[in-house]
């Protein structure tokens, strides 16, 4: 298996959690001693209003960056009532608790800047801060820059980056001695230009290779060490959307995907003024969602944050502000002083960065744990239900009505294992999302019950916008759907189905991501599961998988059998497409043709239909044998793993695939057992 963004090797590795030799030996040992850890964490991003300020003048644009010493530097254009006479001002915040640092601005240039958003601020090599702006007297045809070598405490300049004949209205810098600019050469004619500083001199601009657009509404840029990534808000066909691009720094531009698409179901939505930062391994892109009120008469702006692992596949935008505000500028994202900030001179929304060591947002409930049940399932969310003691009433009066770290959509972490010679060895078996909790009371009983769903719960959220794709592969679309839901790690086999191309694929607003993913994988009879760590695993029935565990003397009970109800002949049809697959051996054994008829318009060729027919038959063959076994808990086993069951009493030595995994622990009853629902491998 390989993860998103990495080339796929030949074949596929077994999907299995790793057990140390001592922990593996403990699973089947007599006198084994279970070990369990239960933790709660309030780790989700809850953006709330941090500051509401009232600048003396209206804000025409803003930018923000974190200096080399960790201080927060903000820049703003303040309006003076004209197109080319805005003020350019900066501020440096070294202590966010000091209110005056958020309201005190130093004017670098009075009444000399273009007011239509041309502003960019970046930290470059040598700890140099650069503040770019478009010159007002030249009608934004000249781009200038101030520089600071003192972390924003003082500035030098301005110097000229470029002087041309056309206006530049939006600027972005990725911090690699670079600048991107939206150029307006005529009415309805816009393009992007790239500037690079080399040997201390700004070179002549390079114009992008993707032609012109009729209008643009903001640009953002990032550098990953080898390539540039650009997010551009522009008029695409019938409305304003944000598109992601890649640029090699020389001449090659690639259109990657939309960040926020044009929503054909409601053209009143407009997505403007992007700003992007690479923080903690994810690109975080803020933008303004604008509703022009054309449908319901309610005009509003809202800041949202989209996230991406690779700049191609983006999550649905998380709201970072209420919809009651009106904003003429974007809201840059920065991480500083232990906070994530979405900030403008008027509004600043913040969320304290999560830390596992923060006692106010985490708790270890292992000592209070009385019992739990967990279930892993294919194609739908698994569940964890834990019961902890509240006998002393210690949780009844807490602010959340529960232990520290217990929050709506917070995280419940469950680790299982055994005590070995190395100590308590634990494996994470669930990192679930808290769905609800309640107190259970009876005479002599005071318990807190917490229910959580595994991270595939993200797939049950509904798509807020209409998403349309053309000529994309099954793998590309699976990664895309997962990312839109908020799952960024995807693993897949190197089988032919992964590279098959769908001519078109649409996710309707109001449809859940799970429905979209299910519709996609059904086209080729694929399966998926979401692991404890939140990674999506795609499974192709045609891929080989070695047995990862053998059950023998440890089996507590078993019900294993066979059936002849599986289909042995599958025909697949689409428009002018047909294929079939036979299991003649099975048909002969039962003297019956068990026929299955499949129609799927997503299939575009006989070859694609043949893949579907073959996989459909393989899934049917799996159902021909199976059952369930009850065994000691093995924290290494997951759904889709292949296990071997050996029972000499019935002359059985057979491999099976885990179709469902259930485990339970009860302190009072002394149980620590697992049930595996099995099908053919």
Describe this structure in words.
The chain contains six helices and 47 strands. The chain is mostly beta strands. The protein starts with a strand and ends with a strand. The model is unreliable at about 1-15 (pLDDT under 50).
User: Count of DSSP helices?
Assistant: 6
What is the approximate shape?
A: globular
Radius of gyration computed on alpha carbons: 29 Å
Total beta strand runs: 47
**Topology-level CATH name of the largest domain:** Neuraminidase
DSSP strand (E) fraction?
A: over 45%
Calculate the mean pLDDT score and round it: 93
State the helicity in percent bands: under 10%
Q: Name the structural class.
A: mainly beta
Straight-line N-to-C gap: 18 Å
Q: Summary?
A:
By secondary structure, the protein is mainly beta.
């Amino acid at each position: 298996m390989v993860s998103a963004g990495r080339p796929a090797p030949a074949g596929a590795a077994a999907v299995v959690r790793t057990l140390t030799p001592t922990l593996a030996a403990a699973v089947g040992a007599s006198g084994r001693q279970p070990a369990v850890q239960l933790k709660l964490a309030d780790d989700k991003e809850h953006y709330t209003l941090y500051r509401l300020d009232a600048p003396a003048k209206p804000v025409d644009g803003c930018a923000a960056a974190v200096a080399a010493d960790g201080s927060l530097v903000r820049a703003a254009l303040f309006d003076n009532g004209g197109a080319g006479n805005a003020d350019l001002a900066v501020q440096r915040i070294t202590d966010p608790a000091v209110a005056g640092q958020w309201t005190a601005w130093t004017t670098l240039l009075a009444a000399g800047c273009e007011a239509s958003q041309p502003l960019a601020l970046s930290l470059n090599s040598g700890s140099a801060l650069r503040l770019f702006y478009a010159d007002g007297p030249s009608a934004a045809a000249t781009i200038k820059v101030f520089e600071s070598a003192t972390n924003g405490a003082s500035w030098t300049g301005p110097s000229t980056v470029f002087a041309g004949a056309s206006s530049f209205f939006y600027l972005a810098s990725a911090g690699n001695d670079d600048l991107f600019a939206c150029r307006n050469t005529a009415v309805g004619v816009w393009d992007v230009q790239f500037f690079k500083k080399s040997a201390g001199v700004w070179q002549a601009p390079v114009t992008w290779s993707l032609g012109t657009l009729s209008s643009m509404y903001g640009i953002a840029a990032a550098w990953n060490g080898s390539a540039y990534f650009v997010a551009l808000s522009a008029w695409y066909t019938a409305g304003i959307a944000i598109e992601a691009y890649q640029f090699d720094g020389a001449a090659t531009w690639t259109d990657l995907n939309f960040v926020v698409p044009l929503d054909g179901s409601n053209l009143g939505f407009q997505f403007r003024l992007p700003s992007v930062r690479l923080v903690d391994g994810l690109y975080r892109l803020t933008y303004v969602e604008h509703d022009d009120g054309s449908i319901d008469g309610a005009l509003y702006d809202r800041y949202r944050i989209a996230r991406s692992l690779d700049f191609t596949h983006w999550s649905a935008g998380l709201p970072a502000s209420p919809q009651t505000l009106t904003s003429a500028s974007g809201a840059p994202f920065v991480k500083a002083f232990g906070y994530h900030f979405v900030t403008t001179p008027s509004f600043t929304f913040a969320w304290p960065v999560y830390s596992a060591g923060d006692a106010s947002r985490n708790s270890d409930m292992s000592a209070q744990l009385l019992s739990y049940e967990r279930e892993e399932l294919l194609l739908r969310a698994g569940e964890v239900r834990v019961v902890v003691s509240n006998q002393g009433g210690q949780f009844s009066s807490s602010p959340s009505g529960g232990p520290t770290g217990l929050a709506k959509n917070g995280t419940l972490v469950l680790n299982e294992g055994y005590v070995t010679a190395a100590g308590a060895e634990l494996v994470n078996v669930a990192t679930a999302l808290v769905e609800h909790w309640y107190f259970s009371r009876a005479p002599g009983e005071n318990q807190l019950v917490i229910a959580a769903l595994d991270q595939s719960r993200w797939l049950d959220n509904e798509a807020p916008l209409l998403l349309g794709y053309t000529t994309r592969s099954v793998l590309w679309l699976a990664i895309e759907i997962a990312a839109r839901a908020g799952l960024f790690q995807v693993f897949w086999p190197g089988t032919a189905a992964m590279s098959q191309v769908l001519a078109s694929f649409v996710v309707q607003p109001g449809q859940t991501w799970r429905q979209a993913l299910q519709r996609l994988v059904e086209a080729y009879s694929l399966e998926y599961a979401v692991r404890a760590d939140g990674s999506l695993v795609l499974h192709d029935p045609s891929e080989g998988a070695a047995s990862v565990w053998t059950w023998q003397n440890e089996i507590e009970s078993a019900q294993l059998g066979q059936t002849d109800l599986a289909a042995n002949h599958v025909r697949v049809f689409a428009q002018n497409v047909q294929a079939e697959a036979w299991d003649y051996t099975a048909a002969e054994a039962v003297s019956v043709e068990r026929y299955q008829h499949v129609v799927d318009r997503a299939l575009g060729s006989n070859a694609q239909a043949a893949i579907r027919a073959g996989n459909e038959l393989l899934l049917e063959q799996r159902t021909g044998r199976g059952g369930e076994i009850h065994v000691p808990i093995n924290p290494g086993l997951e759904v889709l793993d292949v296990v071997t069951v050996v029972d000499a009493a019935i002359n059985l030595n057979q491999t099976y695939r885990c179709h469902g995994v259930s485990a339970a622990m009860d302190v009072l009853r002394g149980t620590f057992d697992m049930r595996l629902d099995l099908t053919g491998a």
